[in-house]
Design a protein that fits this description.
Length: about 280
């Protein structure tokens, strides 16, 4: 199996499908527009470009949320470049003082607990996004990709929270293909991905693999290829494949609604799901 070839997409078709998805969703809501967190990375850049294509620039609002610990001049320039190129409205909200208030007022706050501190940042970003969404009658569009979603490489109720997430069925390498097709600057497409939760953080270093390899593993697992076969095809140790598979399975809770006790005929989140096309009051 040529896994690299399998991961190739037809970007024209994918662009059409995603923009139609965004339009269809918006047609079913009473929202005035959409709002996205813009980091300067390829995922949010691709998602905002698709949103503008789908809805027009006047219905798209980008929110850039720097804070002093991780602020990057390169990211700032890339965010501004995107706003100029795709002509959407951009608002900057500096989170430094907001986060400082949290740090000072959490009774048992531990500055050395890097993970909890980072997740607090991600959830604060989402608080601000949903404030603007509520205040301006917008829906929040997420920019998670399939690679990071399958790996659980996101903050629950942070960057993993949104109303829709249009590129979540595209692996990172596929997002990069689409990004180049729709005109995202190459400097952004090729920039190392990072959640931006602490200085020097990069996604590939934390995951332990380049996305080119990770995506081939995840694609194979998605298609029920045995771990030994994947290891043989990619010339990797079986323990590497097993580690990725285990992380995928162990983070399933991050991709699901909260579990509850099964007590009645139909249970929310289990077997009580409604199609968004259903109209209220219909017989």
């Amino acid at each position: 199996m040529n896994l690299v070839k399998k991961l190739q997409i037809d970007p024209t078709v994918i662009q059409q499908k995603i923009t139609q998805f965004i339009r269809d969703y918006m047609d079913k809501t009473q929202a005035e527009g959409v709002i996205l967190g813009i980091s300067g990375g390829v995922d949010s850049a691709t998602t905002v470009a698709l949103s503008v294509t789908a809805l027009g620039r006047t219905r798209v609002l980008g929110l850039y949320m720097p804070e002093k610990e991780t602020v990057s001049e390169q990211d700032k320039k890339h965010v501004e470049l995107l706003a100029r190129k795709f002509k959407f409205k951009l608002i900057t909200v500096d989170l430094t003082d907001i986060l400082g208030a949290f740090y000072r007022n959490i009774q048992d706050y531990d500055e050395e607990d890097k993970l909890s501190r980072g997740n607090l940042k991600a959830r604060t970003r989402m608080l601000i996004l949903y404030y603007y969404a509520n205040h301006q009658n917008r829906i929040v569009v997420g920019s998670s990709d399939k690679s990071e979603t399958m790996m659980g490489y996101f903050t629950k109720w942070g960057d993993g929270a949104s109303d829709i997430s249009p590129i979540m069925d595209l692996y990172k390498t596929q997002v990069r293909q689409l990004a180049l097709h729709i005109g995202v600057p190459q400097s952004i497409v090729e920039k190392p991905s990072t959640p931006g939760l602490w200085p020097g953080q990069t996604a590939e270093e934390e995951i332990g693999l380049k996305y080119k390899i990770l995506d081939q593993i995840l694609y194979s697992l998605e298609h029920f290829v045995h771990t030994k076969t994947i290891a043989s095809q990619l010339h990797l140790p079986i323990k590497t494949i097993t580690s990725i598979k285990n992380r995928w399975l162990q983070t399933e809770h991050k991709r699901q609604t909260p579990l509850t006790t099964k007590l009645s005929y139909r249970t929310i989140g289990a077997d009580f799901r409604l199609n968004r096309s259903m109209k209220s009051g219909s017989e």
